[in-house]
Amino acid sequence: MAREPEMPLEALFGFTGIAALVTLKRDGRPQISNIVYYYDPLERTFSVSITDGRAKTRNMRRDPRVSLFADAAEGWSYAVAEGNAELSEVAADPHDTTVEQLVALYRAVQGEHPDWEEFRAAMVAERRLLLRVRVERFYGIAR
Fold first, then answer.
1. What is the DSSP track for 22-75?
2. 100: which DSSP letter?
């Protein structure tokens, strides 16, 4: 059973939503991507479906330090979650561990899929993997 996030900064993320994921380019500058996530407040962990071969994935393999940014609708409150990227294996079979994790993530974010076999095949074809970020620190402003 999920608990409500206790700290105001953590609560700005909610259980699911869109956040900006910040990774570090080779030259140290930030690379920023909007992502859809699921947040587990008991584990203090974000889960995200990502694609192999994208800039953010290459960046995290080289340097696992990441940040996630979310803001409130009013624009003044914001929260940043810092942690290290943990990447699963790339989906290689419709019933491998990675695809099972991606199915669980989809259910947490969207609910049931109309065709799970199609979803599973797409995860392999798109070379998807699961990103997990265990939060080490939150900072920001909650008004």
1. EEE-TTS-EEEEEEEEEEETTTTEEEEEEETTSHHHHHHHH--EEEEEEE-TTS
2. H
Q: Are 48 and 37 contacting, i.e. CB atoms less than 8 angstroms apart? A: yes
Backbone phi, then psi, for 106, in 5-degree steps? -55, -45
- Quickly name the fold that domain 8-141 has: Pnp Oxidase; Chain A (2.30.110)
Greatest Cα pair distance, the chain, in angstroms, is 46
Q: What is the CA radius of gyration of the chain?
A: 15
Residue (of 43, 34, 49, 51) closest to 15 by Cα position? 43
Structure tokens at 92: 């290689």
- This prediction has a pTM of 0.91
Q: What confidence score (pLDDT) does residue 5 get?
A: 47
- Single-letter amino acid, residue 68: L
Q: In the numeric block, which tokens belong to residue 18?
A: 């869109």
Mean pLDDT for all residues in the chain:
94
**First vs last C-alpha separation in the chain:** 28
Residue corresponding to tokens 């929260």: 79
